[in-house]
Amino acid sequence: MYNKILCVYLLGFILVFCVRIAECTEKGVLEGSSISVSADIAVNSKYIWRGFALDDDPVMQQGVYVSAYGVTGSIWGSFDIDADDNLSSDEFDWTMNYTYEKNKISLSLGHTYYGFPASNAESKEFYIAAELDIPSSPILTWYHDYGKESSGGGDGDYWELGISHSVPFNKNSITFDLIGNVGYNHKLFINGDGLDVSIGAGLNISLTDKMFFNPSISYSVPFADLEDSNDGNQDSKFFGGFKTLFNF
User: Fold this and answer.
1) pLDDT tens per residue across span 160-186
2) What residues make up the domain containing 223?
């Protein structure tokens, strides 16, 4: 019951927020300003994060993002739709990010607070990312979690290399998107070192000039200590879902 109340609360907050922003957009309040606002609502068959299965049940995930002058603040949440497993994955995240762009290079610095209300746990991490504006859009990110393990923190490091490619068709109103990620885990929620690889494909469908629908499917494979039954104990998994995005 607790997780469903949180889910309804955050979903209601996002819907009210979207309505208010839409009203401001219609009135031209944001016109000509440097502020951009977006939101998304997603339903996924599982919650897979950096090779970990945080929830084997379907989940609802929502977020709101506000950006200005290269700075983005966001709130994001994930909640069980079902509760058939014994995993407590309910989550609230607060993130602040700054991105600097020069020529074809984007550098980002950010910090995320992770809150897990169902298990009364929390964690914190900062990250640094570099992305190249070239075919496949490679992005390399280093995450350092400094949360105390006694409070539910990861107290470890994670490096991730991601690539993506979009193929437009139907007069660019639809794109076919391919993504791939390779992650190296050093003692982040495990005792040793692990690897994970994920691949995915999806569609980005433009419903209006400010609303998009994104169905997708992915496959995640753990390696080394991440799949060791005495450490990470993770398995390969397919998962999929759909997301609706709003830009204001």
Assistant:
1) 999 999 999 877 789 999 999 999 999
2) 2-247
Q: Concatenate the DSSP letters of all residues of 89-150 into one string.
A: --EEEEEEEEEEEETTEEEEEEEEEEEETTTTEEEEEEEEEEEE-STT--EEEEEEE---GG
> Residue 32 has what pLDDT?
58
Q: Give the length of the chain.
A: 248
Residue 95's CB is within 10 A of a number of other CB atoms, namely 18
How buried is 208 (Cβ within 10 angstroms: 0-12 exposed, 13-18 middle, 19+ buried)? exposed
CATH number for the domain that contains residue 65: 2.40.160.40
Model confidence, pTM: 0.87
Q: How many domains does the chain have?
A: 1
Give burial (CB, 10 Å; 0-12/13-18/19+) of 55: buried
